[in-house]
Amino acid sequence: MKQERAVTVLEVGGAIVDRETVYRQPVHIVLEGPSIVRLGEGAYAAQPGEVVVRRWRKLDRIAIPGLVNVHGHAAMTLLRGAGDDLPLMVWLQERIFPMEARLTRECVYWGTQLACWEMLLSGTTAYADMYMMMDAAAEAVAESGMRALLSIGLAGTDPAVQAEKLRESRAFVQAWHGALDGRIQVALGPHAPYTCPEPFLTQIADLAAELGVGIQIHLSETRGEVDQFLAQEGLTPIGLAERAGLFRVPTLAAHCVHATQNDIEILRAHDVRVAHNPQSNLKLGSGIMPLGQMLSRGVTVGLGTDGAASNNNLDMFEELRLAATLHKGVNEDATAVDAATAFALATEWGARALFMPEGFGTLRPGAPCDIVLLDAHSPHFAPSHDLLSDVVYAAGADDVRDVIVAGEWVMQNREPTALDTERIRYEARRLKDVLTGHTSSSNVES
Ligand SMILES: N[C@@H](CCSC[C@H]1O[C@@H](n2cnc3c(=O)[nH]cnc32)[C@H](O)[C@@H]1O)C(=O)O
Ligand SMILES: [Zn+2]
């Protein structure tokens, strides 16, 4: 007897498959296990050998691929608003690091769950995270149902500290890399060249090569950082990372705001992926990354929010729209970063930046079933001349209704299915006192 294949059918009122393929009329998406096997116009018609075991009829929804946030520090949600209106180095050294010194495992767990809740509400299905006590972060994201690329942030000048961090990173890779059917990936996370001396960077690259994992790092975020390395080493931070051998392994470099022409060539030659974080770069006064030059030279770029303490939210719709408009303004060119490019940055190219296989970040056959459903009855889609334009230039997180990851509903009607949101809110308020070092009897919150 011929083997029958159990499939799930999702019918929606419209869909954006990728930056080139858009349906403004009802489509059916056929899922088998965690993946999309087929997508087509109109209602589903039975195929030989297929047995429909579940049918989700959602004609009041528009399907888009889940958004991919390629750079951040999830648990920094607990530090949101704790140090605004300061440049990067003052912000980090005088405000953030002292509070992070009081961080506990509990802070990372609940801060990460808070981040997951916020990211689901704004249609994100996968994100990158570099932080501390990452086993707690991994447990938190595992429960949420989302995908993540996780790294222990590595910094330090003392060789004993460095050795301990490498040992921890090795154990973290062994425990979590590829866990939960690949939902959790691990990379090594040297924080930046200004916190990791060059020999440490080389050791990190050696370990990543040995373990077969990638690297994420902050590079050339501010002009001051670049000037410091040029003065001390005669090289830019990107040039130094290359000399340290970092780019022998797949690398995701955050910011690259002050990348030179030669730096862009280095990034391209080693297929270094770049995380563009326009809102964080604006808020910290770091500058504006040369996105047009990166893309025209063929560098893979994705979009990120960075941590909630320098953004101050994790809304990828804001980042998407900012990427689409900012570069038009600074270049006085309305054709810069068109809607399709911005959409790819937030989806397909972001997935590539996170080292995911081809097809991730789209709704094409073979892609994982990571789908965000938007409210088709939102004013942003009435009328609709161009659905891709509506999503990039008009829609927002408020239009997000449901989120599916690997074929599982992780948010339904704006309620995460696996997160206890009331508890998250309670713990976040409680843990603020741990981080600030105060006990706040007078802190009235409701
Ligand atoms: N500081 C840690 C390791 C780094 S975890 C990642 C770090 O990146 C910090 N961070 C957040 N946003 C940025 C940014 O925009 N640039 C540089 N560092 C950042 C964040 O506060 C956190 O300390 C240690 O002592 O081992
Ligand atoms: Zn960062």
Automatic annotation (TrEMBL):
<feature type="binding site">
    <location>
        <position position="100"/>
    </location>
    <ligand>
        <name>substrate</name>
    </ligand>
</feature>
<comment type="function">
    <text>Catalyzes the deamination of 5-methylthioadenosine and S-adenosyl-L-homocysteine into 5-methylthioinosine and S-inosyl-L-homocysteine, respectively. Is also able to deaminate adenosine.</text>
</comment>
<dbReference type="GO" id="GO:0090614">
    <property type="term" value="F:5'-methylthioadenosine deaminase activity"/>
</dbReference>
<keyword id="KW-0378">Hydrolase</keyword>
<dbReference type="InterPro" id="IPR023512">
    <property type="entry name" value="Deaminase_MtaD/DadD"/>
</dbReference>
<feature type="binding site">
    <location>
        <position position="306"/>
    </location>
    <ligand>
        <name>substrate</name>
    </ligand>
</feature>
<dbReference type="Pfam" id="PF01979">
    <property type="entry name" value="Amidohydro_1"/>
</dbReference>
<dbReference type="InterPro" id="IPR011059">
    <property type="entry name" value="Metal-dep_hydrolase_composite"/>
</dbReference>
<comment type="similarity">
    <text>Belongs to the metallo-dependent hydrolases superfamily. MTA/SAH deaminase family.</text>
</comment>
<protein>
    <recommendedName>
        <fullName>5-methylthioadenosine/S-adenosylhomocysteine deaminase</fullName>
        <ecNumber>3.5.4.28</ecNumber>
        <ecNumber>3.5.4.31</ecNumber>
    </recommendedName>
</protein>
<feature type="binding site">
    <location>
        <position position="73"/>
    </location>
    <ligand>
        <name>Zn(2+)</name>
    </ligand>
</feature>
<dbReference type="GO" id="GO:0050270">
    <property type="term" value="F:S-adenosylhomocysteine deaminase activity"/>
</dbReference>
<feature type="binding site">
    <location>
        <position position="71"/>
    </location>
    <ligand>
        <name>Zn(2+)</name>
    </ligand>
</feature>
<feature type="binding site">
    <location>
        <position position="221"/>
    </location>
    <ligand>
        <name>substrate</name>
    </ligand>
</feature>
<dbReference type="GO" id="GO:0046872">
    <property type="term" value="F:metal ion binding"/>
</dbReference>
<dbReference type="InterPro" id="IPR050287">
    <property type="entry name" value="MTA/SAH_deaminase"/>
</dbReference>
<feature type="domain" description="Amidohydrolase-related">
    <location>
        <begin position="62"/>
        <end position="410"/>
    </location>
</feature>
<feature type="binding site">
    <location>
        <position position="191"/>
    </location>
    <ligand>
        <name>substrate</name>
    </ligand>
</feature>
<keyword id="KW-0479">Metal-binding</keyword>
<dbReference type="InterPro" id="IPR006680">
    <property type="entry name" value="Amidohydro-rel"/>
</dbReference>
<feature type="binding site">
    <location>
        <position position="218"/>
    </location>
    <ligand>
        <name>Zn(2+)</name>
    </ligand>
</feature>
<keyword id="KW-0862">Zinc</keyword>
<feature type="binding site">
    <location>
        <position position="306"/>
    </location>
    <ligand>
        <name>Zn(2+)</name>
    </ligand>
</feature>
<dbReference type="InterPro" id="IPR032466">
    <property type="entry name" value="Metal_Hydrolase"/>
</dbReference>
